[in-house]
Amino acid sequence: MERLYIDLGEASYFINIKGGLLKNLTDYINGADQYIIITDTNVDNIYSYEIAEALKDNLYHKYIIPSGEASKNYNEAMKILSFMIEKNSTRKTTIIALGGGVVGDIAGFCASIFMRGVGFIQVPTTLLAQVDSSVGGKTAVNLPMGKNLIGTFYQPSTVIIDTELLRSLSRKEIISGIGEIVKYGVVYDYSFLKFIKENLSQIIALEPLTITYVIKKCCQIKAEVVSRDERELRFRKILNYGHTIGHAIEAITDYKKYTHGEAVLCGMYLEAMLSMELELLDKCYYQEILNIIQDSYGEVKLSDISREKLIEALAKDKKNVGGKISFILPTTYAKVTEVLLSKKEVEGLLLQILGRSIK
Ligand SMILES: NC(=O)c1ccc[n+]([C@@H]2O[C@H](COP(=O)([O-])OP(=O)(O)OC[C@H]3O[C@@H](n4cnc5c(N)ncnc54)[C@H](O)[C@@H]3O)[C@@H](O)[C@H]2O)c1
Ligand SMILES: O=C(O)C(=O)C[C@@H](O)[C@H](O)[C@H](O)COP(=O)(O)O
Ligand SMILES: [Zn+2]
Hints:
Strand order of the largest sheet: 1-2-9-6-5-3-4
CATH class of the largest domain: Mainly Alpha
Distance between the termini: 50 Å
CATH architecture of the largest domain: Up-down Bundle
Bound molecules: nicotinamide-adenine-dinucleotide, the ligand O=C(O)C(=O)C[C@@H](O)[C@H](O)[C@H](O)COP(=O)(O)O, zinc ion
Order of helices and strands: EEEHEHEHEHEEEHHHHHHHHEEH
CATH topology of the largest domain: Dehydroquinate synthase-like, alpha domain
């Protein structure tokens, strides 16, 4: 088994990675008085028997949210908290998030506020959640005004990554995970980016040794970044590459057409173009970034996105400072920089880079 340590003082924890870990869940959980499993309809349909088997000797209750980003909202969080009151949860309860990033984000949010904080374990079931969202402690729900507008930093006590659970994912969800994987390569580790490029088909095929290596590498990078700057005061911002435009794309398409990772792939593509237009980005690196995005996602068309709506959504991004929109832009191999641009500047740049390719 692969084991990584994320060093955050009192909030430090282990990330455990191996195929088949769900069966042995109880070896890694912490002897709480009661467990609340939060999962979604798809995961429950596929893994309901395994969950019941894994927890049969423990007191637990299961709360199932409808699958999809639309469930990551405040009302759903309140329903979870009320369910916990109904089930007599106490401060000795532990919440287990068994699902993708949607389940992880909302379950973590509930764990952080129920009775001012209860135990929290991440059991991520999507590639995206295994390489990114289950690690680092960002929790959130969306508001109608935008993505992740309410949330906390609240670390899990452990992360249990069962790579066998990825077998039931659709290709679209695998590509979504590759969005965040490519991000780590671009912002932090050029040799990893080359590895992704050379092994893309094995990654998409979830070849066991390759996918385990990739998950471990991503968790290692995320652990290093988060250990340096847990609260995103400075360094952690590098993980936002592709996310300013990515979150805007998700919001204006009602979180339905693009998965988070697909929107991030498109966002990284456009933000690389933005960086090039601002003459901040090395030309060879620029081409490499566009190539790996196209190789994994296909052509970035965005024919359904209007420039006007994109700018409106960007203007509402929670990272904006003093009326300016914040972008994390690549500059050269494994280096990025934060650039703040006015709405007008972004309008001009988007017109420049996209011409008439979007409305
Ligand atoms: N907290 C963080 O650091 C962080 C990082 C990245 C993304 N996120 C958030 O994560 C969310 C996206 O996560 P996601 O991509 O996992 O989406 P998701 O949770 O919606 O899961 C994607 C789909 O896969 C299904 N699914 C989950 N596991 C499955 C399995 N093993 N087999 C078959 N189907 C399965 C789900 O039911 C869903 O339909 C977004 O809300 C994003 O903002 C958070
Ligand atoms: O962990 C981080 O830090 C990240 O930014 C990871 C991102 O991939 C993730 O999508 C995150 O939820 C974005 O957070 P937000 O702060 O922009 O809401
Ligand atoms: Zn993300």
